């Protein structure tokens, strides 16, 4: 849970209200309490969270090409559980990225496919686990490349640039919510990525795609993800 989570913001409001009541600022305290409940209603009941996330996910279409271009699958994280197969160790987001990378690999006559991601617990890098999962799904080991040092999107872009340069196009695979930020970073460093988003949360024909007013814990998650991505985009635009 981060500062972008509406539940975190709600409790910060409540704590602020309690402090105001403690110092006999009852009117201000009541206003803060009202704001707290208004905020949690806005981000758990209204259609706003769905809209915010959809605006991110719809910026780039699904990749439907079959060009034989290098593929870069961005990392997320994995579990250090030796009782599981590599694909089962991956987080949901990592697995979505790997399977999309494999799909493109198989449709493009076996282009080289690179995986990035560092060792979160100083053990096995996520890139290695992702590569092993891809091999188990039919990728030839000789076609896999691992970038095991990057810890975030910017470092992933730098690592890819250092190894492969900026002259050639490549297919960039990551989650649809993350794709706008990833494209911003890679293009800013002079590279030529072709977006291949995956892991869509908002899909046509589902309850989440509607402008609904149903209370949902998923909307809290959507809000946190959207605020994080929009904030990170601003950071990369201004400071990188």
Question: Can you describe what's shown?
Answer:
With 240 residues, this protein is α/β, with parallel strands linked by helices. Helix content is 51%, strand content 10%. Helix 8 links the parallel strand 4 (169-175) and strand 5 (192-198). Helix 1 (6-22) runs antiparallel to helix 2 (26-44) and helix 5 (92-107) packs across helix 6 (126-136).
Blueprint (SSEs and pairs):
Blueprint: H1 6-22, H2 26-44, H3 48-57, E1 71-73, H4 86-89, H5 92-107, E2 113-116, H6 126-136, E3 144-147, H7 153-164, E4 169-175, H8 179-188, E5 192-198, H9 217-239
Parallel strand pairs: 1-2, 1-4, 2-3, 4-5
Helix pairs in contact: 1-2, 3-9, 5-6, 7-8, 8-9
Count of individual helical segments:
9
Going across the major beta sheet, what is the strand order? 3-2-1-4-5
One letter per element, helices H and strands E, the order comes to: HHHEHHEHEHEHEH
The helix content, as a percent range, equals 40-55%
How far from one another are the termini? 25 Å
| Main sheet summary | 5 strands, parallel
Which stretches are poorly predicted, pLDDT < 50 over at least 5 residues?
A: none
The 3D shape can be described as elongated
| Strand residue percentage | 5-15%
Number of strands: 5
Please identify the structural class as seen in this structure: alpha/beta
Radius of gyration: 21 Å
What is the residue-mean pLDDT, rounded to a whole number?
A: 93
